[in-house]
Amino acid sequence: MITFEDHGSKVVLVYTPSSFRPVTWVDNKLGSEGHATLSQVFTVQKTDLLSQDADDEDDEDDGDNEDVRRFVIGSLDGQYRTIRSDVLGLKHDLLIVTTMQLTRSMFVAERNISIFGRIDELLTEQIVVGGDREGAIPVDEFVRLLRRFPTSTEVNYYAATRVTRILREYLETMSDAELRLENYIERRERAETKKGVETHGRIPAANELELEKFTYVRDRLVEMLGDAEGYSEAEWQRAVADLFLLVFPQYIDLMLVGANGCVDIIELKKPFERGLMSKSQYRDNHVPRRELSGSIMQAEKYLFYLSKSGRDGEKAISNKHAASLPVGLEIKIANPKAIILVGRDSNLSAEERFDFEFVRRKYSNVVDIISYDDLLRRLENVIAILTKRVVTEDNLGPDDEIGVSA
After folding, report:
1. Residues 95, 101: Cα–Cα separation, whole Å
2. pTM score, two decimals?
3. Helix (H), strand (E) at residue 262
4. Which residues contact 343 (CB under 8 A, 6 or more apart)?
5. Where are the coiled-coil regions (predicted)?
6. What is the pLDDT of residues 79-135, one digit of tens each?
7. Alpha-carbon distance 399 to 181, whole Å?
8. Which residues fall within 8 angstroms of residue 21, CB to CB, at 6 or more apart?
9. In 3-state terms, what secondary structure has residue 110?
């Protein structure tokens, strides 16, 4: 068992061995190698051992003190406890606000995964939890992170999902959305074989196909959003790109090259749950998270270099995408815009959503920022319009459809 104590200005890790593994293994490790790793996360040195004299001051609660080992792993200074970087294998010392009680579950996830180790892999700066330091992770956000840290079951699920997705590229297994579209197309083909398609029925048929197309895109996107963590960044971008070109048929490639040859760009990001606006406020405002601000900066740089490239850029794009572009299409770079598909807005508060709209409008002259929930809402609106149109056409007779009066 691992617990933590404050001894004056020292932060102390208390190790109490289990009944089936005596403490001698720690002593042997310290004696032979000079260090030992507890729970595969905490690496303590022989020099970290708290002296027996200091230990005796708090022995009343320990019972049999011979089996307890205490290690100094950091210091207590003002607003924060500092945990040494070498204890957790981090790039910098870890700072945790003193109002938070240290527990093993703050550091160790299921399968003895180091929580701060995983966070450190994604950051270059020091990890600070709580307090008023700039860049600190708010306490409530950190607690939420701990609650949502993947369990063993989820890790197995993600692994199985990744394997299934890879196998799907080689096998004929289809998702529910794909099956629904396939069944619809088969039904239409059978119906048209029986009665034929008259000239006056082509537009209604096209509307029905459009309805099924947008329904498929919506259903497929909902499926993907429910399993976003199972995708790598590259896999997600490829899958969403295919759906995007169905929704926006004016683009013929993801450069984006318009049907008239004009070039825009698109930035596709995985839909992280809190990827848009900060939960905490800066001067009474919710500000863009790094995922969003970084995407905007990246898109603006792309636009800058694209506009600067001029005719040479147009020729380079034409040569690079010659195989996928229609014959005779002339690439033109004329005030290109960017589309950024990023994040979820369904979990934003009213204030966060209001500030997000400010951000969208600020950059709207060059960048169209679309959240995945916004894209779903657009799809729902299109589906609703097409559904009404199809129902209306079904209620009309053949003469009504071609404008013939009795």
Report:
1. 13
2. 0.56
3. none
4. 269, 271, 272, 275, 276, 289, 291, 292, 371, 372
5. 167-194
6. 999 999 999 999 999 999 999 999 999 999 888 889 999 889 888 899 999 998 888
7. 30
8. none
9. helix
